[in-house]
Amino acid sequence: MQARKIAEAVWWVGAIDWDRRLFDSLIPLPEGTSYNSYFVQGTKKSALIDTVDPTMKRVLFERLKALKISSIDYVIANHAEQDHSGAIPDVLDAYPMAKLVTSTKGKGMLCDLLGIAEDRITAVKDGEVLDLGDKSLQFVEFPWVHWPETMLTWLPNEKILFSCDLFGSHLASAELFGRDEGALLLAAKRYYAEIMMPFKTSIEKNLNKVVKLDPQVIAPSHGPIYKRPKLIIDAYRDWAASPPKNLVVVPYISMHDSTRLLVEHFVEACADRGVNAEQFNLAEADIGRLAMLLVDAAGIVLGSPMVLAGPHPKVAYAAILANALRPKAKFVSIIGSFGWGGRLAETLQSLISNLNVEFISPVLAKGTPRASDYQALDALADAFKSRIVQSSQQPETKMETQEKYMCTICKYIYDPAKGDPAGGIPPGTPFDKIPDTWVCPVCRVPKSMFKPIQS
Ligand code: FEO
Questions:
Q1: Of all protein residues, whose CA lies closest to atom 1 belonging to ligand 1?
Q2: pTM of the full structure
Q3: CA distance 438 to 209
Q4: Which of 302, 323, 380, 438 is the most buried (most CB within 10 A)?
Q5: What angle do CA 211, 215, 217 make, to 5 degrees?
Q6: CB-ligand 1 contact for 57 (6 Å cutoff)
Q7: DSSP state of 343
């Protein structure tokens, strides 16, 4: 096995795990993964940046052997999780002069998790530089991508950013550099959804550190390397920081068709109203795909039958998962069916307490849905429409929403902050977004009879 050169005196020495199908005994890996490790040779010193999962340490050692290096001066641990750090004890044994370099928090974690002796570890701070001779490495603090200790390593002359988990993808590929940007972005989004989404606040806060570096190459520790870093930086900005999109995700289970009928009606009712709703049967689901939908969704509607006085366990699992992933959804509701009683909605609601969302009244049907249940679902779709349309308009119409209009006949003042709920206009609706069919709630003249009030 050979090392693969990615720049002058910089090699990839990682391992491709074609066959792995599960990560953390939780996350499906339909396309395997890789553990990227990099070796940098300066004129004075050398450094190994991250290692590999312990199951593949043989591959790492074979690639290092192929480079015919006699020593490693520094082993950089950007992250203490074992898929990158697990081979560090063996590397330190094989290269006894090597010093392990990591963040302050990383030092404690590597001692705790791998039993590494404290005196082998040097803790570095944000911005600190390690001199390798004609090259240097600079460390960039970027906590919570994916654990609290994470940092990035920057190779300034070559403008390569070694980002470890950040910007990674679970994608086993023979291509060191990702050429198919569509496939790469899809895998990176799945990875973001499964691993990074809970930490979107830290990503949003620190992403400009990466932008300022202006990297020419981003070399993560999972998946292909980016030769066009803007691709993944822009995607992360969208996923982590953009408002949620017009999408309601409906994860559900049905046992005797009642819940399925409710879900199908709701999804159709949403479509009729211009709301994109996607139903997702949890019976044989790929939870990675569910996580991807949650990246963009403004709404979540959980659909479940009652099982032994509570929600179906698979729906409870999806709720717990969403609670852990902390998507940016703003509105949640519950659809379900029951035979005689139980606590379906209350239990599901209690499982997503981490989410900063508005709960919209659930729709629960006793037995096979009746006309009144379908009407309630129509009202639920209306509720999602008004909220999602309203929230998607808010950022673009911030200035407009402040402008009030007065009826020239009766002097009624339309205040966008209050709207006209009785007339079907939700609070936050700017005047120019009110339908032309709307009339003055006092004197019933048309919208055209209103004039803006100059503040
Ligand atoms: Fe790839 Fe958080 O380890």
A1: 165
A2: 0.85
A3: 49
A4: 302
A5: 135
A6: no
A7: -
Q: Which atom of ligand 1 lies nearest, measured to the CA of 168?
A: 1
Check if 296 has its Cβ closer than 6 Å to any atom of ligand 1: no
Q: Which residues of the chain have pLDDT under 70?
A: 391-402, 454-455
Q: Does the Cβ of 79 fall within 6 Å of ligand 1?
A: yes
Q: Give the torsion sign (CA, 143, 149, 152, 153).
A: positive
User: Given this model, what pLDDT does residue 133 score?
Assistant: 98
Query: Which tokens sit at 240?
Result: 């982590």
Q: Which two tokens stand for residue 50?
A: 């991250």
CA of 81 to the centre of ligand 1 (A): 5
Distance (angstroms) between ligand 1 centre and the Cα of 120 equals 22
**How far is ligand 1, taken at its centre, from the CA of residue 273, in Å?**
41
> Can you tell me the distance from the alpha carbon of 155 to that of 10, in angstroms, rounded to the nearest whole number?
10
Q: 420 CB under 6 A from ligand 1? A: no
> How far is residue 385's CA from residue 379's CA, in Å, rounded to a whole number?
10
Structure tokens at 229: 């870093």
Q: How many CB atoms lie within 10 A of CB 177?
A: 16
| CA-wise closest residue to 79 among 60, 108, 102, 53 | 102
Q: Which are the contacts of 300, defined by CB distance < 8 A and separation ≥ 6?
A: 248, 249, 250, 251, 294, 322, 327, 329, 331, 332, 333, 357
